[in-house]
Design goal:
Blueprint: H1 3-10, E1 14-24, E2 34-40, E3 63-65, H2 66-74, E4 79-83, H3 93-101, E5 105-110, E6 122-125, E7 143-148, H4 152-161, E8 169-174, H5 179-192, E9 196-198, H6 202-205
Parallel strand pairs: 2-4, 4-5, 5-6, 6-7, 7-8, 8-9
Antiparallel strand pairs: 1-2, 1-3
Helix pairs in contact: 2-3
Catalytic activity: 6-carboxy-5,6,7,8-tetrahydropterin + H(+) = 7-carboxy-7-carbaguanine + NH4(+)
Binding site for S-adenosyl-L-methionine: 49-51, 85, 126-128
Protein name: 7-carboxy-7-deazaguanine synthase
Length: 209
């Protein structure tokens, strides 16, 4: 990578874009809403059940000018969801500042394992045991989404919920390949612990991106 490209990446004026698309938000609090998704490459968290492992290696996703990404987004949507990979591996200040100057709402989905950059209307924190969030993100998180793979994840969910603000929305989501096994357990858990809500990946049921 040449020096100029690296400088642009450092400033957030280029990002390793994996994919971008306009679709329906399929998970969590904003399920069912239209949004433009920006998926940025690069992740070192390493969830074994990740359904976008091709996002992990940022080198597979050539740096793209952020202004081009912004132009694509603003021409189609009024809400942008930045996801990954782990998007906070990159400087997102330029991206969100420019989006907000265009009256676009900015949402992020993150493990919280890197320092927060960018200005956000909605922060969805999805902590992972392999690389826990930094403490700074818990109190400003709008939505806590815990992926449930096995029974032990309910304990992890409560540990994480104890760190967020009282206004944070709490969601339990079955890992897709374990949904038949874990969804009934999540239903039972939420009925006994109604501070939680169920998140389902409705985009997969609808067969859309």
């Amino acid at each position: 990578m040449d020096k100029n490209t690296q400088q642009l990446i450092d400033k957030g004026e280029m990002l390793p874009l994996m994919e971008e698309f306009y679709t329906i938000q399929g998970e969590g609090f904003h399920s069912g809403k239209a949004a433009y998704f920006i998926r940025i490459g690069g992740c070192d968290v390493g969830c074994h059940w990740c359904d976008v492992k091709e996002s992990w290696d940022a080198n597979l996703h050539p740096p793209t000018k952020t202004n081009l990404i912004i132009n694509n987004a603003t021409s189609q949507a009024n809400t942008v969801v930045v996801t990954g990979g782990e998007p906070l591996m990159w400087n997102l200040d330029y991206l969100t500042d420019t989006l907000k100057n265009n009256n676009i709402k900015t949402h992020i989905e993150t493990s919280g394992s890197y320092k927060l950059s960018g200005t956000w209307d909605w922060i969805c924190l999805s902590p992972k045991k392999m690389k826990l969030p930094l403490n700074e993100i818990y109190k400003i998180t709008d939505e806590l989404k815990i992926i449930i793979v096995n029974k032990q994840d309910f304990k992890f969910a409560e540990e994480q919920a104890s760190k967020v603000s009282k206004n944070c929305k709490l969601f339990l989501q079955p890992e897709w390949s374990k949904r038949a096994l874990m969804t009934p357990q999540i239903v039972d858990y939420v009925m006994k612990n109604p501070k939680w809500k169920i998140s389902l990946q409705i985009h997969k049921y609808l067969n859309i991106p």
